[in-house]
TrEMBL record:
Residues 1-22 are annotated as: Disordered. It comes from the Bacteria. The keyword Plastid does not apply. It is found in: Membrane. The keyword Transport does not apply. InterPro entries: BilAc:Na_symport/Acr3 (IPR002657), Bilac:Na_transpt (IPR004710), Na+/solute_symporter_sf (IPR038770). Residues 8-22 have a biased composition (Basic and acidic residues). It is a multi-pass membrane protein. The chain crosses the membrane at residues 29-50, 56-73, 85-109, 115-135, 142-159, 179-200, 212-232, 238-261. This is Bile acid:sodium symporter. Keywords: Membrane, Transmembrane, Transmembrane helix. It comes from Streptomyces dioscori. One of its GO terms (cellular component) is membrane.
């Protein structure tokens, strides 16, 4: 979901200094889990109403990624150049911990091939953009969070397909080349287009920024509805197993991300950012790729993850924000 906040240090923010975009993003990330739960329930109760909507999922994801690009600024890239080592650590932790956990959980729970591939694909996705807001709420290093999320998204076409082939290939055939093309079309190009719009029409974009988190939230909700509707029958028998897999995947990702920050002595604020950059995934992309390359059932873990990681992220942020640094 395209939710970003200013990259100033969290302790520099006050209620008076919050921009309209910041407030809108925080409200959206709070209400988002409720919206996605309602969307999932709609797909489960009225699956016939969304027959044939599966082909629209990549286009819907493109809208979300375009919104992400519009919220990006040159300051985000300057943050990468200012701390390349910290960003590299965050990127490495993200693309090692979550794919590895996905593979391990699939084996430990002995998931069916479709669900196993779906869990692994979630792990191989880039960082979830809502992680920026959750890091802000947790009083973490927002600049680092934005930098890692930005770079993980930009390198996804080069990293996600081969990782999925390596780890999920034992469960289902993986066409890595086709997956690269899909990520370029549904992620990289929309992000670059959004960034270009921000640079060329910044005066008009500033007025629209408060609405972008809501547009992204609603679009993700539609994606979840379509994914759930496509596998409504299977959900009744696999829902508990998928939920256990998602909770383990996300929870261990948050813990190991935080631990990686502490182990490398990045400091408390940066460690909090690492927790959310590792544990929160772009589940919309995972759902789109699973629907296109595997099956609607394989997209089910991504749909559940989309709900759960926002709930767990908000709870973890509330707990961390009350701890002394």
């Amino acid at each position: 979901m395209s939710l970003t906040v200013s990259t100033e240090r969290p302790e520099q923010h006050t209620t008076d200094d919050d921009t309209a975009g910041d407030r809108s993003a925080r409200r959206a990330v709070t209400i988002f889990p409720i919206l996605v739960l309602a969307a999932g329930a709609t797909g489960l109760l009225l699956p016939g109403s969304f027959t044939g909507w599966g082909e629209s999922v990549p286009y819907l994801l493109g809208v979300v990624m375009f919104c992400m690009g519009v919220t990006m600024t040159p300051q985000d890239f300057r943050g990468v150049a200012a701390r390349p080592w910290a960003v590299a650590l965050g990127l490495g932790a993200h693309y090692v911990i979550m794919p590895g956990l996905g593979w391990l959980i699939a084996h430990l729970l002995q998931l069916p091939p479709q669900l196993a591939a779906g869990v692994i694909l979630v792990g191989c996705a880039p960082s979830g953009t809502a992680s920026n807001v959750v890091t802000y709420l947790a009083r973490g290093d927002v600049a680092l969070s934005v930098s890692v999320a930005t770079v993980s998204t930009l390198v996804a076409p080069l990293v996600t397909p081969p990782l999925t082939l390596l780890l999920a290939g034992e469960y289902l055939p993986v066409d890595a080349g086709s997956m690269v093309v899909d990520i370029l079309k549904t992620v990289l190009l929309p992000v670059l287009a959004g960034l270009a719009v921000r640079l060329l029409a910044s005066r008009y974009v500033e007025r629209a920024l408060p609405a972008l988190p809501w547009l992204s939230a609603v679009t993700i909700g539609v994606i979840v509805t379509v994914v759930v509707a496509g596998s409504a029958d299977a959900i009744k028998s696999a829902a508990l197993l998928v939920f256990v897999a998602v909770v383990l995947h996300n929870g261990l990702g948050l813990a190991l991300g935080y631990g990686a920050g502490r182990l490398t002595r990045m400091g408390e604020p940066a460690s909090r950012a690492m927790a959310f950059e590792v544990g929160m995934q772009n589940s919309g992309l995972a759902a789109s790729l699973a629907t296109a390359h595997f099956s609607p059932l394989a997209a089910l873990p991504a749909a559940v993850f989309s709900v759960w990681h926002n709930i767990s992220g908000a709870l973890a942020a509330a707990w961390l924000s009350r701890r002394r640094r």
